[in-house]
Design goal:
Elements lengths: L2 H19 L2 H8 L3 H14 L20 H14 L3 H12 L5 H10 L10 H10 L1
Helix pairs in contact: 1-2, 5-6
Length: 133
């Protein structure tokens, strides 16, 4: 029995206890839960059965302000395949894909995916090294 199933069984026991006693206040006090939580569980159980009692994360899977996944994949592809830096990726996206994206956003995407620096031995790092000499 995993954690979610144990939690569902616990909530079911609490709901059954309230039915047997007939007092929500006493049940909530006995189990140490809030009445609003109890009523939320009761409504979820009435609407969806045991599936309604499963804990769900309170946060969305993707933040509403985050760059769309398709654009992130294009940025990462340009970095992996052509070793372009953030400014050149911005230029490429605007020119060929008609996508306006800030260089800071591209830098954040690269940093989040562990690609903020080019690996040694790539053409871009060698050419910048030669330019410094």
């Amino acid at each position: 029995m995993n954690k979610d199933q144990r939690e569902v069984q616990r909530k079911l026991r609490i709901l059954q206890h309230a039915e047997e006693i007939g007092s929500v206040v006493k049940t909530c006090r006995y189990f140490g839960i809030s009445r609003s939580g109890f009523y939320r569980w009761r409504d979820a159980y009435a609407k969806n059965g045991e599936a309604g009692l499963i804990n769900r994360p309170s946060i969305p899977k993707q933040h509403y302000n985050r760059t769309p996944v398709e654009i992130e994949e294009k940025v990462l592809h340009l970095r992996r395949k052509y070793h372009l830096g953030p400014i050149r990726i911005v230029w490429y996206m605007q020119r060929y894909h008609d996508i306006n994206i800030a260089s800071a956003t591209v830098s954040r995407i690269l940093k989040r995916n562990g690609m903020s620096r080019l690996p040694r031995g790539t053409l871009a790092s060698q050419s910048s090294y030669k330019a410094l000499q």
